[in-house]
Amino acid sequence: MGEIRLMKGNEALAEAMIRAGCDAYFGYPITPQSEVIEYLSREAPKKSKMVVLQAESELGAINMIYGAAGCGKRVMTTSSSPGISLMQEGLSYIASAQLPCLVANINRGGPGLGTIQPSQSDYMQAVKGGGHGDYHLIVLAPYSVQEMVDFVKIGFELAEKYRNPVMILADGAIGQMMEKVELFDFIERNQEAPEWATVGRRPGKDRVFITSLFIQPEKMEEVNKILQAKYREVEKKEVRYQQLNIEDAEYLLTGYGLGARICMKAMEIGREKGYKIGLIRPITLYPFPYNVYNELAPKIKGILDVEMNAGQMLEDVKLAVDGKTTVKFYGRMGGMIPTPEEIIESFENHFIYGGKNV
Amino acid sequence: MAKAVGEVIIDIEKCKGCELCIEACPEDTLALANAINKKGYRYAEVVANNCTGCANCAIICPDACITVYRLIMKKIA
Amino acid sequence: MSEIPTIEINKETIIKPENLVYKPPKTLFDTPMHYCPGCGHSTVHKIFMEVVEEMGIENDIIGVAPVGCSVFAYYYMNVDMQEAAHGRACAVATGIKRVLPDKFVFTYQGDGDFAAIGTAESIHAANRGENFLVIFINNAVYGMTSGQMAPTTLYDMVSTTTPYGRDPKIHGHPFKITDLIAQLPGAVYVTRQSVHTTANVRKAKKALRKALEIQKLNLGFQLVEIVSNCPSNWRMTPLESLKFIEEQMLPFYPLGDLKVPEGI
Ligand SMILES: Cc1ncc(C[n+]2csc(CCOP(=O)(O)OP(=O)(O)O)c2C)c(N)n1
Ligand code: SF4
Ligand code: SF4
């Protein structure tokens, strides 16, 4: 058993970074995740050799990540919605240059400067690319402080396995809440740089360069094909999800992160009322567990998708069920968090009272 | 007294005919050829046998086309 | 009386390894560079690679290429390199140097890259005293995108976006970012050079070497501005462009050291 502690989500994330042997963190303060850089500035020097640097902006931070990742180091940055928007250029370059890194978005309400309250309104930006060009981040959506910890380790492993940026898409509530967590032990890593890394020319070997510029369209298409092949492999091998009460389910609630967590409570209330409700929680938002929904859909009378946004994952759920069952939506926006009661009310309106009160 | 004699070798396929070497040469050793290279540039060539190997041309040449040799001859009095 | 042997002087007697005075550095790939005829980018690539070769640090240096005409610098410089997004070279170099502090690190940037879109990254890297070298090519124009105004475009200078000349009331003033950076305590070596004459090429090369020696001492940010040309977009022959540097650029961008660490 690892060390057990009571920790805030953001601090647990930061502690996990130190334990995962992260070599460098570059970031810029923004609510609700500034505890990450504060915790690292305080704790990393005591426990590790991690470089911790407050950049001049998120543009600076993500490009420092590019540079350090290009040297084969384990690197991470964190931010919240407006800052993540600024990082999109860099993420596109990182994806194209195939550099591994981990980014956490502690999502807050938008658009614009928005609110500092928790939200899930960056789903599309996270899973559909976000920056320019055909690329994907691998996106992990924690629903507890424990998963904030676990996904740091898994996130680095996925990033390095696929040489691709990985995003932990959480929200302000998960970042701020305190829970009991089990921390993994400090990881000893092989410090030898991979052969694609720029660490200075290696005697007897060709020099290395890292780029995302392929001026001939034939070459650029080839690079795109390599990326797409990688994404297909990720879609095949890395889908993660949780399902509950599926065996006898007539209806499904679905949501990710905090939304899913509230749905779990709503499911309990619904079951007490006698509704046979199950739940699907996508853990990887990219790759999305399309098949899981698709296979269950014919047996299901209806799915209520619950999100803290205007209905973004909804598009993927609909794609997944491919018309085989009805999909309805309940969402709160702008930093408002739905209650389990609201969710059950919406569920009843849609599926029990036939939508009359909707 | 010493006298320096030089030789320059110009990689004419890399030459872009910018004439910087011609301008930089204190001895007027170089000029543009009337012929063109594969890229279509009139290239620099040696037109006089008076190179002293000062390397000015090679130093100014942007495209690193020029290699310079210099032999210093000591006159025996 | 002994006879003085006569030696015939011909090509063969001169072209011998022991008589070599200049050959292109091995650190520069033997491929033609894509730059226009007479472009200072090529000259600076060449002399910087000479410095790297002479210092014997080709296995210990990592470069960052910009977006601009020198976007392909890594096809010419035979050292490990990364290609940065437009303007972000100083942030990328910060990332590299922070995780590999024992390596030499440099960026190579145009005026648009370093002094317009990348101003925040440039100034903050300088202000943090990041221990890397910026080679900053000031050709007063956006070369790669074919001749728009740069932050460094001179007063009255014509570009494709200042077709009636740069008017400070409309376009703002030419930006002496090098002078600005010289004010920052984190920047320790700040100098302005040019490569428009043989003598200036030699001086610029010395400055680049000095910068790397300062980097070795871990003293702070090094900035070598090179006042350069863009004959194509200035609509001049290469020789005319060198004259323009001498007559128009240098009075506004005077050459010389702006800041040198004490005792160096
Ligand atoms: C984000 C972004 N904006 C604009 C461009 C287009 N662009 C490419 S190079 C360049 C200007 C380059 O000028 P400079 O830095 O002065 O270098 P030079 O080409 O003169 O050497 C611009 C605007 C780009 N590539 N990326
Ligand atoms: S300076 Fe170089 S490129 Fe220009 S004409 Fe002379 S040899 Fe050719
Ligand atoms: S456009 Fe200008 S800066 Fe670019 S290679 Fe040509 S001369 Fe040089």
Number of helices of chain C: 11
Quote the distance from N terminus to C terminus of chain B.
9 Å
Helix/strand structural class of chain B:
mainly beta
Shape by Cα distribution of chain C? globular
Give helix % range of chain B.
Answer: 10-25%
- Which CATH architecture of chain C would you pick? 3-Layer(aba) Sandwich
How is the quaternary structure best described?
A: heterotrimer
In the CATH scheme, what's the topology name of chain C? Answer: Rossmann fold
Radius of gyration of chain B: 13 Å
Strand order of the largest sheet of chain B: 1-4
Q: Strand order, biggest sheet of chain C? A: 3-2-4-5-9-8-10
Detail the poorly predicted runs of chain C. none
Q: How many domain modules of chain C?
A: 1
User: What's the β-strand tally of chain C?
Assistant: 10
Under CATH at level 1, the class of chain C stands as Alpha Beta
Most residues in contact: chain pair: A-C, 40 and 32 residues
**Can you give the mean pLDDT of chain C?**
96
Give me the Rg of chain C, rounded: 20 Å
Main sheet characteristics of chain C: 7 strands, mixed
Question: What is the straight-line distance between the termini of chain C?
Answer: 56 Å
Pick out the low-confidence regions of chain B: none
